[in-house]
């Protein structure tokens, strides 16, 4: 009888242990909203599958939510109404606002095992007031794209200075063709201002009337007034791309990631060249792109899982695949060794080398409240003819009025 009782007790303990094991081994779910479309989405999706299959502690549950602006709108709605994910992949300038509003968690307590060969300046892009609120996923620098066939026919070389670019735009302009197509958006204008050694924010306040900002807009205004450039607002962005593809414009400014997206969708009737953005001595180029943010409500274990996924994504071979597909900058030195002949192309190598002069393009939470006023000023000047100084002064007044509220 005693032996039977012992067996019964042991059996009960075994059943209790078996019942507990699934709970102990349950994966921590990490809902993830991302913005990666073709051609980079295949690399990201493979990384998610690989991560989920490589360990049992965490499971990334991914969902594509559109481009940067679409995703930002959806996230803001979800933060107000509920249903926000744990992990969000968004544009860099969105991150400081998430941090300021308490919507993004500081990740400093979870950043163990970060590879020592990550480029320090790239890590700075996801810091807000000394704390780490994001994980860099894809960073790019601007490029000057040009129609190589048109340049060759006119005996032109890629411009290295802004005066050279103005001259080239004039020589390229014809009866039905503009030398340059430019967007009246915050990213493009900021790139020009930074290249001249300036900034759109100074001491936490808008600096839209700085001498570099005025100089940049006067240059663009001058080219438009002479008929050498075509200005397109954000709503007309697809037309700006079409202008270049249909040889209605022969130069344009965009991030390094723009060309592979176009090449994935269409074949071009001409050769596309790319060159570094003209830059004055002491000027910089913006490091722009996207980062991962862990949102409020996430548990410590979910935050650890998000960092673990990011570290998985940073594996050198995967990083090299990401760079080849998207033309984002490699985040690790070790990844460059895996890129093979990708950086042997002299034009691509020259554009990517701008990372040495790269700086975070926006780390000020208030920028998302101000940039609409600046984009309005750019459009009024470049499409409406308003004097650059006047347009920028109006934008500055409106931005300061918001700041004082």
From TrEMBL:
<dbReference type="Pfam" id="PF13416">
    <property type="entry name" value="SBP_bac_8"/>
</dbReference>
<dbReference type="InterPro" id="IPR050490">
    <property type="entry name" value="Bact_solute-bd_prot1"/>
</dbReference>
<dbReference type="InterPro" id="IPR006059">
    <property type="entry name" value="SBP"/>
</dbReference>
<protein>
    <submittedName>
        <fullName>ABC transporter substrate-binding protein</fullName>
    </submittedName>
</protein>
<keyword id="KW-0732">Signal</keyword>
<feature type="signal peptide">
    <location>
        <begin position="1"/>
        <end position="26"/>
    </location>
</feature>
